[in-house]
Amino acid sequence: MDKQFAIQQAAKITGLTVHTLRYYEKIGLLDGVARNEQGYRQYSESDLAWIEFLIRLRETGMTISDMKGFSDLRSEGISTVRARRHMLEAHQEKIELQMRALEENLESIKRKIDYYKTLE
């Protein structure tokens, strides 16, 4: 059986706040988090893996709305794999464009630094 984690433990492991974990559950990003006999949330290792993936989506600029759409598709099961793949491919494309723009900006900054070095 999966190890179970209280919400405070899950927050510490994921780096999210307890408030954010509750919010993610409230809006449907976290579906089916178990509860113990006292009604406290019990996160499984698979819940934590899903949260880590959500964090990666968020940190790479996916909107909460798009994350919700992805999560809803995931909840529908295997029949939505193609739609989920298409969503991730579109997101990947956006990230790659952002990375190219960042690389170009970084090169411009490096050139400016090199120029300033010649003036010292």
Automatic annotation (TrEMBL):
Question: Record's PROSITE patterns?
Answer: HTH_MERR_2
Question: Which key words tag this protein in UniProt?
Answer: Coiled coil, DNA-binding, Repressor, Transcription, Transcription regulation
Q: Where is the HTH merR-type domain?
A: 4-73
* Database matches in Pfam families: MerR_1
**Which PANTHER family does the UniProt entry name for this protein?**
MERR-FAMILY TRANSCRIPTIONAL REGULATOR, REDOX-CYCLING DRUG-SENSING TRANSCRIPTIONAL ACTIVATOR SOXR
Reply yes or no: does the keyword Transferase apply.
no
Q: Which SMART domains match?
A: HTH_MERR
Taxonomic superkingdom: Bacteria
Please indicate if the UniProt record lists Cytoplasm as a keyword.
Answer: no
Q: What is this protein called?
A: MerR family transcriptional regulator
Question: Where along the sequence do coiled-coil regions lie?
Answer: 85-119
Q: Which InterPro entries match?
A: DNA-bd_dom_put_sf (IPR009061), MerR-type_HTH_dom (IPR000551), MerR_fam (IPR047057)
